[in-house]
Amino acid sequence: MTISAAQAKEAFPDEVVTKAMTRLVSVPGLDKQVALITLDNGLDHNRPSTFGPQGLLSLNAALDEAFAAEPAAIAVTGKPFVFAVGADLSGVEEISQPELARQIAQTGHDVFRRLTESDIPTFGFVNGAVMGGGLELALSCHYRTLSDNTAAIALPEVFLGLFPGWGGTQLLPNLIGPDAAVTVIIENALNQNKMLKPAQAAELGIVDEMFSSADYLEQSLLWLAKVVRGEISPQRKEIDRGQAWDDAITRAKSIVDGKTKGASPGATKAVELLELARENDLDRGYAAETDALAEILMTDTLRAGLYSFNLVNKRAKKPAGAPDKSLARPVNKVGIVGAGLMASQLALLFVRRLKVPVVLTDIDQERIDKGVSYVHDEIDKLLSKQRIAGDEANRLKALVSGSLSKEAFADADFVIEAVFEELGVKRQVFAEVEQHVGAEAILATNTSSLSITEMAAKLEHPERVVGFHFFNPVAVLPLLEIVRGERTDDATLATAFAVGKQLKKSSVLVKDAPAFVVNRLLTRFLGEVLAAVDEGTPFEVADSALDPLGLPMTPMTLLQLVGPPVALHVAETMHAAFPDRFGVSENLKRFVDAGKSSVWSWDNQGNASVDPEVAQLWQQGGNPLTAEQVRQRALTALAQEVRIMLDEGVVAQAQDIDLCLILGAGWPFWLGGITPYLDRSGVSEQVNGKPFLAPGVASVPS
C-alpha cells in the first residue's frame, strides 16, 4: 500500500523534499558503527523540514541503507535547529482522490514503523523544533534524546481539525500514560496550540534524556553507546489500563465537548483513537489511524483548517495593501494617552517589544502612578517566572514613565490614545497632542468603532493619523486592525505596519468603515441573537444556537466578556451608520442601566440559570424561535454583512475577514474563519447567490 515514487511526485509536484541522508559514524565504546540519518530539506531554519510523500520515500531509502550496514544502532536527527515539523500541509490541499489520501496515510505508518519494529536499537536525536509527524517519527524510535534549546514541541493536529495520524495516538499514551497524552494531543492543541518546553517534555517522559545544545550530538551518541552496551536502561512508566484510562478518556471528551461542541471531527476522532490505544495493539491502532486519516483528509472541515493555517502563516506575514516598508519611519519613543487598563497593557507591550522609552499621560497623578505601577508589576511577574533576566527587568522598568503634561511627547515618534470611546474626546486629545509633537510623529488611535477620518478632520496634519486597533487581552490576541483614514499617507501607514510587526502582531489593512471588521461582524451576529431573545426565544435556546459552529464562546459569554456597556455603545454606533441592519435592543439598554454584567447566575455546583433580576427586566415578546431558526438568522446576517463589507472594500478579500476572526476573535482553525463555513453550509448561495471562495479553496477540489 506504500505510495510509489511516480505517484509521490505526481501527488505533490511542488513538494519541498526533505531528504534523508545516511552516514556511518564511529562512537567510542562500540565495535560497530552507528548509522546516523539526517533529515534536511536544503533550506535554513526559517523553512523547517516536513514530510510529503517524496520525503517519506527518501527516509525509507535511508533506512534501507542503514539496515544494510548492520550497525550497532540507527539514529535519526535533523538539520540545525530543526528535527522535523510534520506533514507537508501545502500538498494535502491538492489531494482530490480518496485512494491517494489513504496511500499517503499508510506510507507514513509503513516507514516510521520500521524504526519501532527494528531488531537494531533505534534512537531519535531531537535536536530542534519537533511537531506533528516529526514527533511521531521520534516516538517511533526505541529511545529519544532532546536538545535543551528546542523551541517548539507539540502535536498540533487537533488544533487544525485533524489528529496525530502517523502513530501518535497509539504510541504516546502507551509511553507517558493516557492522561498526559490527553494533555499533549487534545488539551494543549485546543488551547491555542500550546507548546511544550524541553523540560516539560522530559518530565512527561516523551524523551529519555536532555542534553545541552552546545555539544548535543556528541553527548547523544555517547549516551547511545551506553544504552547499546547495557550500561543504561531508560525507565518507562507503568501504564494503568483500567480506571486511569477511563478517567483520561472522560477528561478528553469533556475538553472536546467544551472547546468544539462536536464541530471538529478531528478532535472527536482523536478521543476514539486514544481509547483504542488502551489495547496497545499497533496493527489495529495503526489501521484505525489510517482509515480515519484517509477519511478526514477528504473533508471540507480539514481543508478549512489548512486554509486557516495558510492565512496565519503566509497571508498574515504579507498584509494585503500594505505600503512599501522602506517608507516606514523609525520609532525611538512612544507616547500613550491614558493610563487605564488598556493603556497600561499597551505600555507593557510597547516597552517589551520596542525597548524604547514609553511615557503615559492622564488627567491626574494618581491614575498615572497606577498605570506605571501596573507595567512595573507585570515586568516583575515576568522576572519571577524567569521569562526575563534581572538586568532586562530593570532596563524595561526604567524606560516606562508618566507625566501630567503632554509636553512629554515632544520627542515621541509614535503616540497612541486609549481614552474613552467618544469621538469628541478623542478629537480633543489629538488636538492637544498635535501642539506638542514633531511634524512627522504618528498619531494612532485604538478606537474600536469610530471614524479615523472624522477624528483627524480638524487637525493640522490629518495625514499622520492611523487606526491601530488591538484586541483584548492585548498580550494574547495577535490581531492588529490597521485603519487607513481618507487622508492617511503611505509613510504613516508603513510606519504603523512596521511597528505592528515589531510588536509581533499580525496586521490587516482595513478601510475606515464603522467598527472595521471583527467588531462589525460580532455586533451584527450578537444583535440578531439578542433580537431573537427580545422576540421571545429563551436565553438558553438562543445562547446554544451557534454551538454547531464550535465557536470559542457563546453569544451571552461574549456579551459578558466585551462588557454590556461597550456592546451597547458599539451597537448604537452601528445603528447610526446602518439603521436597516443593526438594531439596538431596548432590553440591553435596561440591562446596562441596571448595572448587570451577566445574563446568568450560578449555584454552588456551578450550574447556570437566568439571573432572576435579568428575567424580570428583560421584556420578551411572544414569538420564540428554535435554535435552528436562531442559527439560520445569525448566519444569514453574517453572510449578508460579509458580502457588503467586501463590496465596500473594507478589506481586500474574504481571506482577510477570515484572518481577522481567527486572530482577533479566537475562532477555531477548523472552522476556517466564517466564509468557508457559510460556503459549505449553503448559506452564501442562499443569501448572495454565490460562494465567497473559489472551488478548492478551503474545500476538497472536485
Structure description:
By secondary structure, the chain is of the alpha/beta class. It contains 30 helices and 19 strands. The chain has an 8-stranded mixed beta sheet with strand order 12-11-10-13-14-15-16-17, with helices on both faces.
Through-space gap between termini? 24 Å
Radius of gyration: 28 Å
Strand order of the largest sheet: 12-11-10-13-14-15-16-17
Shape: globular
Total strand segments: 19
The description of the largest β-sheet is: 8 strands, mixed
On the 0 to 100 scale, the average pLDDT is 95
Secondary structure category: alpha/beta
Please count the helical segments.
Answer: 30
Helix content: 40-55%
Record the SSE blueprint.
Blueprint: H1 5-11, E1 19-25, E2 34-40, H2 53-68, E3 73-78, E4 82-84, H3 89-92, H4 98-116, E5 122-126, E6 129-131, H5 133-140, E7 143-147, E8 153-154, H6 157-160, H7 168-176, H8 178-190, H9 198-204, E9 209-211, H10 216-228, H11 243-260, H12 265-276, H13 282-296, H14 300-313, E10 334-337, H15 341-354, E11 358-361, H16 365-384, H17 390-399, E12 400-403, E13 414-417, H18 423-434, E14 442-445, H19 452-456, E15 465-469, E16 479-484, H20 490-502, E17 506-511, H21 518-534, H22 539-544, H23 555-562, H24 564-577, H25 586-593, E18 600-602, E19 608-610, H26 612-617, H27 627-648, H28 654-664, H29 675-680, H30 683-688
Parallel strand pairs: 2-3, 3-5, 4-6, 5-7, 6-8, 7-9, 10-11, 10-13, 11-12, 13-14, 14-15, 16-17
Antiparallel strand pairs: 1-2, 15-16, 18-19
